[in-house]
Structures are given as C-alpha cells and as structure tokens.
C-alpha cells in the first residue's frame, strides 16, 4: 500500500506527539461518525495541527486508517501466558470480547471493517492488523503442541482464528449477546476442536 508507507515510520519527539494526536482524532471520528465522515482537514482541526502536516504525512484517508491500524496493533495488549491451552485461548477470547464491546473500540472496529468491504487499501491494512494479532497469539498453540496437549501438525493460526470468529459474528452479524460467557464458549470450542484434530494439516 504505497500511500501508507510514509506513515509507517516510527517517529519520535514532537513528530510522535503529532502522530498520536492525529490518530486519536481519526479514531474518534471513526468511532462516532464512521469512515464516510473521515476527512483529513477535519482530523487536522480536531487534532490541533496544521492541514499541511496531515496531508504531507498521510496524504489520503486510506493511509491514515492504515497507520491507525498499525498503531492499534502496536498498542494491543500482549499475549497472556497462563501455562495451559485452555487458559491462553480463554484469555484471547476475553480480550477480543472486551475490545468489541468497548464503547470506543467497538464502533471503531466496526467502522474500519465496514470500510474494508469497499476500499482495497483499508482492507489490506485491516488484514495486516489481524496477521500481527494472530502471530502474537500463535505461540500459545505451538507450546500446547510441544507439551503434547494438541496433535502434531496443528495449525496455530487456524486455532487462533477459530477463537475470535464466533465473537466477530456476534458483533457484526447476528447481534447475539457478546459477553464473557460467549467468549469462554468460543475458547472452549476452539480448544476441543483442536484436540480432536480439526486443525491439523
């Protein structure tokens, strides 16, 4: 995604503060008004920075959203290591559940996902975000294979996807309650399927 390239550098000092302010403003607009209302000049005004700065650094709305997703991936909580597959997957599911039901993060994710259905650059940025998160949690499955808790050849990425998929379905499609109990069921189902060999190559 060529437009996003300048925004992916990790700046320091005043530049870092400007980036943080702009990304916060962009996230506020996405969460409250949606992707269609995201405008670089308006984001600059909300962030208290010059329009020229925003246009020079990001250039397009798609590049700004891409950088926002990079920042969200960087700021996400690290993987929890409970020492057991069930505990690790439950921690992952509860993190996803809390994120999707958060008053700000939930609407923000829904806006980005909706935008990704019709904007290729946003879709690419979203896919990159989830690849980072899946890679973060894959080692909990790898260690379970090493302990003999899961069959050899179990695909760790598929197991992690299986944890969050039912939760996103509730958040985006069915409207069913998305509570901690739903998160625990999703984690338990993924663990049971993995132990049964559902995710082996």
UniProtKB/TrEMBL annotation:
Residues 16-76 form the HTH tetR-type domain. Pfam families: TetR_C_11, TetR_N. Residues 39-58 bind DNA. InterPro entries: Homeodomain-like_sf, HTH-type_TetR-like_transc_reg, HTH_TetR, Tet_transcr_reg_TetR-rel_C_sf, TetR_C. GO terms for molecular function: DNA-binding transcription factor activity; transcription cis-regulatory region binding. Keywords: DNA-binding, Transcription, Transcription regulation. This is Transcriptional regulator. It comes from Virgisporangium ochraceum.
């Amino acid at each position: 995604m060529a437009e996003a390239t300048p925004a992916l550098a990790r700046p320091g000092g005043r530049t870092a503060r400007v980036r943080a302010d702009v990304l916060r403003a962009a996230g506020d607009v996405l969460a409250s008004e949606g992707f269609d209302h995201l405008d670089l000049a308006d984001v600059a005004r909300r962030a208290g920075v010059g329009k020229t700065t925003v246009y020079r650094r990001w250039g397009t709305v798609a590049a700004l959203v891409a950088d926002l997703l990079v920042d969200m991936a960087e700021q996400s909580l690290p993987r929890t290591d409970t020492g057991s597959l069930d505990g690790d997957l439950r921690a992952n599911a509860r993190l996803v559940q809390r994120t999707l039901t958060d008053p700000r993060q939930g609407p923000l994710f829904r806006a980005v996902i909706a935008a990704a259905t019709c904007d290729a650059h946003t879709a690419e940025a979203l896919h990159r975000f989830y690849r980072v998160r899946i890679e973060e949690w894959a080692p909990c499955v790898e260690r379970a294979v090493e302990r003999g808790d899961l069959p050899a050849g179990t695909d760790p990425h598929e197991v992690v996807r299986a944890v969050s998929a039912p939760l996103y379905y509730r958040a985006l499609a069915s409207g069913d309650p998305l509570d901690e109990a739903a998160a625990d069921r999703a984690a338990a189902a993924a663990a049971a399927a993995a132990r049964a060999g559902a995710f082996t190559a």
